[in-house]
């Protein structure tokens, strides 16, 4: 530890002991004898009155450190400041020199000097600093005027402890990034500087606002046809574009297209939007309705008369020539027909309505009248063919002839309008208006070998009465003679008494001719009232019932089975024993009659089949006899 005595030679000296170590701090000086370090303050700061009280300050004040470099030991330190005492007030910034005298115990002495600074570090006070300001772009206050106003306030009100030097700002109109008539914010820095170089910066913003959107006029809503141009030169442009601040606001439009009822009808919502430099915008919408209300146009084909086969041929009756549509490049052409009947099915009038229609349903109609006639007869091919047949048993010549006539002699016909099924055929004996019929045999025939012959004219007629005809001949040939059968046998007969002759009934032979055989059904009737002898009707049997049928005799004969039907009417014949035996002409038992149903006195029917041999034998003489014999059981005589 080093004990020092130090003095001020500026008025009353102050002695103090101090122990000071200045490890790397303080202000140090050296001489051959001493190493001196001043650890006290070298700067005193001026107060708000630009004053400072002189003193060394520190703890202890004026702390220092002395080391001997020579043979002696330092014994004291004197500090002196000529003309100023500790505690005196110093005004304004200045620098004073402090002297320290160091002695040792062998009489060595050195003087060390150090500067003492009186410093002003307090910046100016703006008192009324600039305030942030917001103005409307059309309010009339410019930023330059505002800066001048702030400078005036600072010059009038700002203070400093030692004295102001200058007040400046950094606003430069040349670097101003926006016009006073638009919007934006400018940060202005104001710098206050005192006489000692202390500065104070204050900042404020000048904001120009624009909250009003531009104004303009849009074209009115309108309706346009689909072929009309839709640019602004045709539909109208904006007008009277103005803004309260921006001299050149921008404007543009955007469109929304809404589909309509058909492809060429739309609604355009054209929205015009004006924007000023501050982003204020105003939108207005113009509605453009695009319609298609014009029908397509075309040249319809002319009225004409055509034959019936051409009625449906559009290449002949004609088709319209489209002239186009204002919007639809492919309008649809169609037609509908109204048929007005004429004098016959293939003679009529077509009222053909041609229609041309675009996709929006606009339609134009035109009437074409087509008169349809039928003047051509049917065409016969092949022609009717002759037919020749030979008489042969058992063919039916008339049936074959009728079939040949029905088939039009195998002729066929087509017609330009009527279908084959709608053609009508008629057959006449040629040269007459008589329906075709095969004449009866003409024997002897004038033409050898011809049994029957007929020339037939076949007439075909269409639905409108147009006719054509063809002729053919039906011939029946006969080159075979008749055939005899069942000839009576040879026999010898005596002459009649008293006469040189004899009367004899000879049976006729059967004659068969391959052409002249005629088949026809025949029916004979015989009716008898049942009778009985006098007496008790319950005990007396009825009489035998003879039945006689007159039938054709030779040369006619049966060629198949013969049916015999016996009807008992209102007869008491319901019991098993109450019936008649049926007896043929030669005594053949043909069966019995059927019983009548309950109650008594009812009806019954019995059918018996005779062979053709039985019929031909029994009816040879033209009379067929059948006998009904009542049944009389042995145990029931008379019942």
Strand line-up across the major sheet:
3-9-8-6
Shape field: rod-shaped
Which topology of one domain does CATH recognise?
Immunoglobulin-like
Indicate the percent of residues in helices.
Answer: under 10%
How many individual helices? 5
Query: By helix and strand content, what is the structural category?
Result: mainly beta
Q: Biggest sheet: strands, sense, closure?
A: 4 strands, mixed
Q: From the coordinates shown, what is the CATH architecture of one domain? A: Sandwich
CATH class of one domain: Mainly Beta
The whole-angstrom Rg is 79 Å
How many strand elements? Answer: 39
Mean pLDDT: 85
Task: Work out the strand percent.
Answer: 35-45%
End-to-end C-alpha gap:
196 Å
Overview of this protein structure:
With 639 residues, the chain is mostly beta strands. Among the domains are: 27-119, Immunoglobulin-like; 133-209, Immunoglobulin-like (Sandwich); 215-291, Immunoglobulin-like, CATH 2.60.40.10; 297-373, Immunoglobulins (Immunoglobulin-like); 545-630. Helix content is 6%, strand content 40%. It contains five helices and 39 strands. Strands 3-9-8-6 form a four-stranded mixed β-sheet, with no helix packed on it. The chain has a four-stranded mixed β-sheet with strand order 10-13-12-11, covered by helices on one side. A hairpin with a 5-residue loop joins strand 18 and strand 19. The chain is rod-shaped, with a radius of gyration of 79 Å. Mean pLDDT is 85; it is low at 1-24.
Keywords:
mainly beta; Immunoglobulin-like; four-stranded mixed beta sheet; 6% helix; rod-shaped
